[in-house]
Amino acid sequence: MAWGWLDRKRVDSPDWTGFLDQGIKLEGKIEAKGTLRIDSAMKGTLISEGVLILGEHASVEGQIEGNCVVIAGRFDGTIQAKARVEIQPRGIVTGNIFTPCLIIEPGAIFDGQCHMPGSSESAKPVVIPIRSSVQATQ
Predict the structure, then answer these.
(1) Of the candidates 24, 18, 21, 22, which has an alpha carbon nearest to the alpha carbon of residue 5?
(2) The whole model's pTM is what?
(3) Would you kindly state where each structural domain of the chain is located, as residue ranges?
(4) Pairing label, strands 109-116, 126-133
(5) What pLDDT is recorded for position 91?
(6) In this structure, are residues 30 and 44 in contact, taking their beta carbons and an 8 Å threshold?
(7) Phi, psi for residue 100 in degrees, rounded to 5
(8) Are 87 and 71 in contact (CB under 8 A)?
(9) Which residues of 69-91 are buried (b: 16+ CB within 10 A; e: fewer)?
(10) Tens-digit pLDDT profile for residues 76-90
(11) Which of 11, 59, 126, 138 is deepest in the core (most CB within 10 A)?
């Protein structure tokens, strides 16, 4: 059964909070404490205390507030991440990213601005305008 991993998951486990698969369209706000993976279409706000994964089939428009954000699909909007943002090889991000750590894999596309705050609040943030379309070499 495709949902067998849910049966094995402890109810109180913070590891996996949820999964939205292809074919779902959602408009609104989602808040998650653990790992959340989205492979669907969404318009709205995502708030995650754990890891937020936008899978290969995700198409999300709106705002993300999270700890660690991994994008393998398409995102348009604003990302605010406390730990890091990772754009994987087929990921496409358009908009603004606020994070202390940004990872852009070869093949990923990022069109927007990255704001990287300093380690202290008195430090002035570094603003880096980026337009990237790096092709993977084989």
Answers:
(1) 18
(2) 0.75
(3) 15-133
(4) antiparallel
(5) 96
(6) yes
(7) -80, -15
(8) yes
(9) bbbbbbbebbbbbeeebbbbeeb
(10) 999 999 999 999 999
(11) 59
